[in-house]
Write a structure and sequence with these properties.
Structural class: alpha/beta
Number of strands: 5
Radius of gyration: 12 Å
Helix content: 10-25%
Strand order of the largest sheet: 1-4-5
Strand content: 25-35%
Distance between the termini: 31 Å
Largest sheet: 3 strands, parallel
Order of helices and strands: EEEHEHE
Amino acid sequence: MKVLILAGGFATRLWPLSETHAKPLLLVNGKSILAHLYDKIPNDHEVILLTNKKFKQQFKTEIQKIGRTQNTTIFCEDAP
């Protein structure tokens, strides 16, 4: 099964919280929202994460921290 995570926005309505971090990377109970999502996704499922250039590296770092690089592909929109 494939899982699509849409994270291409800039979350401007949450500024200043999301000015330098994507909304899924904000912490809830000490873990990123993205980590909470990954907790619900079985390890054998392929994850496709769509984001933008501004936050691509932050998502790569968080996915490495979560330990789910094996089945995750990041697609990046051309938006700045």
